[in-house]
Amino acid sequence: MTAPVALVTGAADGIGWATARAFADAGYRVVLADLRAEAAAARARDLGPEHIGVGCNVTVEADVVAMLEQVRRDCGRLDAVVNNAGIGSPHLPTTDQRLDEFERVLHTHLSGTFLVSREARKLMAAQGGAMVNISSIAGLGGLPRRNAYGAAKAGIAAMTRSLACEWAAAGIRVNAVAPGYVETALVQKLAADGSIDAAKLRRRIPMGRLGRPEEIAAVILFLCSPAASYVTGAILCVDGGWMAFADAGDAASEA
């Protein structure tokens, strides 16, 4: 039996790397794509010889087309796509934000998700499959100073619903996860440079802690699995209760 194939973008670190491992453990052949080709290749080697590392800038149309052509040539099919590639945005007051930085964040998240989804759809048409896009609590609620990132993640949520409705008849399910704050290298860097207060964040989360990349990956894998066969167009929060909390004061309880 031919193993199913999963493509994960931004796969060299953080949620992307945890997701690639989860799919490999579930029996998928994984194509790990990252802007850093050498890092993607190294991660693929860590998973095993059947997995593939690919360098790709998801904002460059020619790169994305070439990547999906490589998937077609080397794997012959595509069953799952995880649009995880993205970048952070400067934590600056709106009046200090530059247009080129704003546009770069939107272009990376929105254009990248659009291009990979569009090209992957052509390869998935033969057998159907599932896509999961990475939104964020920043795209569902208001986070001060996060204009570009929030707008990009809100756009991904809207794109997810649109694609889900358009491609359902082709047997392709499209969902998104909206993570809260997750213990990744990026979040650790933000905490180290003072951009975020990790202790304050933990108090704001009803579960009292940040998420782990593996917890986000597990939900992504579920959404791509037969167990989620009737789920499409959903935006699933994986945030420890962040979006559910609407009271004043700290959310985490000592009880």
TrEMBL record:
NCBIfam families: PRK07231.1 (NF005559)
Gene3D superfamilies: NAD(P)-binding Rossmann-like Domain (3.40.50.720)
CDD domains in UniProt: SDR_c (cd05233)
Listed name of the protein: NAD(P)-dependent dehydrogenase (Short-subunit alcohol dehydrogenase family)
PANTHER family found in the cross-reference section: 3-OXOACYL-[ACYL-CARRIER-PROTEIN] REDUCTASE, SHORT-CHAIN DEHYDROGENASES/REDUCTASES FAMILY MEMBER
Record flagged with keyword Oxidoreductase: yes
Keywords: Oxidoreductase
SUPFAM superfamilies for this protein: NAD(P)-binding Rossmann-fold domains
Domain of life the protein comes from: Bacteria
Family from the record: Belongs to the short-chain dehydrogenases/reductases (SDR) family.
Database matches in InterPro entries: NAD(P)-bd_dom_sf (IPR036291), Sc_DH/Rdtase_CS (IPR020904), SDR_fam (IPR002347)
Signal peptide range in chain numbering: none
Molecular functions per Gene Ontology: oxidoreductase activity, acting on the CH-OH group of donors, NAD or NADP as acceptor
Keyword Oxidoreductase: yes
